# Entry
Amino acid sequence: MGYAHEYAHAVLHRGRVPMEPTDHVVNWADGPRRGKFHPDAEAFALPDTEDLADVPVAPGLLPGAAGVPAPGAHPGFGLPLLSAMLKDSYGLTGRRLGVQANTDLAGLPFYPHANWSRGTAGGGGLYPVSVHWASGPSGPLVPGLHYYDVQRHALQRLLTGDVTGRVREALGPDAPDGALDTDQYLILGVKYWQNSFKYNSFCFHVVCTDLGTLAQTWRIWAAARGLRLAPVLWFDEPALNGLLGVPGEEEAVFAVVPLHWDGPRAAHAETARTDPRHRPAVRHRDAERSRTLLDFPQVGAMHRATLEGAAARPAPGALAAAAARTDAAPADTAGGGARVPLPAPAFPDTGVRRALRERRSSFGRFDARREVSAGHLSAVLAACAGTRLAGDTDPAGEHRLARLYAFVNHVEGIGPGAYAYDPDRGDLRPVVTGPQGAFLQENYFLANYNLEQAGAVLVPTVRTTAVLDAVGDRGYRLAVATAGAVAQGFYLAASALGLGAGVALGFDNVSYAERLGLADGDEAPLLIMALGHERPGPADFRHEIA
# Structure
């Protein structure tokens, strides 16, 4: 077994055995920026696309489902469409000023401590995923490599010249269909310090969820417009780190997303393997704000472990052995209770942009006086269960990696208890009967959520060790990113339905595994996702900037 197995065990048990270093204290005053800063790089604003017509989010949340209208066909991306997707996903869209139960409430009115909103969720509200655009001759700009500046919604040119051949070479000849037939790529990187300064050794797990939330936002956003995006997770990572000019142990490329571009495609010259000493690379460097940077051995060890075999893409069908089990149910401690049928999932005509703009974490605002309807619960569960992220290892989306459980508190027509969701049957199977509010609150580490007031708390599980056994240590990124993708789909589904939502990492994973009868298996509860109505008339202040 590789190191990723050891790390996965430490993450699962961190609620009972804290991860090293146990004496880490966050130095907020010396924290990093929430984005990269290239002071000498040329910047230019992206097009304003606020007048771009919104489209229903349902085809992105339930693609191909019965009763969901197919989105209109789209010829491909152009600069305005790309600008809109970046703005809606990672661009700043407003300022958080609502009164809620999070610990940062007292500082929100002060500009240095302002909390800005965006469409994509993130662990701890931080911004460790960097977005670079490698653009070739078929694009609208002079070919080059650009960094997306989220604060200014602008591009910074880091390198001039067509380097997309280098990207195709890194993807390899066995890349998924369409990945090599383009000269436009989004490159997703992670700067570990932007997250580890807060989460220390837990950082690697958190940034993998952040990768999943962003990738899932793009998949839903594109699918709603009749386009398909799929991240490639296996590639020659050191080659792309070298292209970006970043030291892999501090910052690394985690995914490449090929873009189908609208318009005539430029012919791709054969990429010759040239002497690496004569290959162009970004020379602009990120100006770090922190004066003191700390290294965390477990983060470095996971980086090295997941770097091994990065270019050795798993064989088709390798993930079949790690797919979520739906036939072999966990131990039924509910005494064989009757299954609970759910209404067919459906969403209103809420636009994808609106759903992203209205997405937020509820932070203690749940109100049990209004029950969640069974139809709304069904829609959210179906959207989460439909998550597929393995674009290069499972291009057809045949294997579902995440399984959903629901702790029901206040849902119309469904008794309190813990249930396993069966997406094929569209029903719930009882696992534990009776009220679950006390268990939920006792096993949550923080005080910013009143879980007993939520209508339901959903728990995605992934057979993490089975994924590692099937595709190697690099599969850890895929397994945890899948959970992140589920969380983003959950947020957007709740937003589309007008429900409150909140996702948390700080809970006793082992207690949940024991409660659900999973202690003797390989399913790992990775997140808790609270769903419910919020209290009416909350104190807030509108501060949109988009």
In short: The chain has a mean pLDDT of 92. The longest strand covers residues 184-191.
